[in-house]
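Field reference: sequence -> structure
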Amino acid sequence: MLLYVSPAKSFIARTASRSIFVTPTKSFLARSASSSTSSLASTSTLTKPHEANIIIKKSNFIALASPASSYTTAQTFLQTVKTLHPKARHHCHAYHGSSPQTERSSDDGEPTGTAGQPILSAIKKNDLTNVVIVVVRYSGGIKLGAGGLIRAYGGIASTCLIEAEKEVMVIKKELTLKVPSKYIGEVYQLISKHDGMKTEEEKYVGDEVEFTVEVEEERVDGFKEELGDRLSGNIVIT
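Structure field:
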């Protein structure tokens, strides 16, 4: 079963294979997990969806994890999984996002604290963000107890994430710059030097120009300092 999901579309296609893809966010710079980085402003996410399952006392726990740029996207993924598994007794999930910092979890009918929180803990223990996991349970009729459920949900979520393909993403910060138009050339040089990217077109008001850029979070302080020095303080940064 192949489902392509984006924030704007529910799904595009299905095939006999079993994977689910959610469109990743454009608000971060993704790098291969094999590439080296010492950035303190970096974290990891999934490059593509992954699925894992385990059977415990006749209950089948199926974990489906995916990158998700927002909780809205995560909810779309959750609904897709519910469509895939309409007969499952529970569809428990957790989401951890970075922009803004967001945490959500649901036990979906399981005893409080036995499903959603263990799934969320698995995401955080694996140092991942912008990730959603849905764990569906087909009950086998044998009670597992609170401890058994916590181990089952948290365990299969962790297994799924450990197996999944990952990538490092560098968090970026948006800055609004207002400068005299005569300095625009120097500003663009510094944006390029610090690997920044303009995200909005310039707005001219009199002799001043205003626009928005994105810069890697760990480079923001250096970027601001150099702008101030180069332009002798003739710039407003918000």
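Note: Residues 1-40 have pLDDT under 50 and may be disordered.
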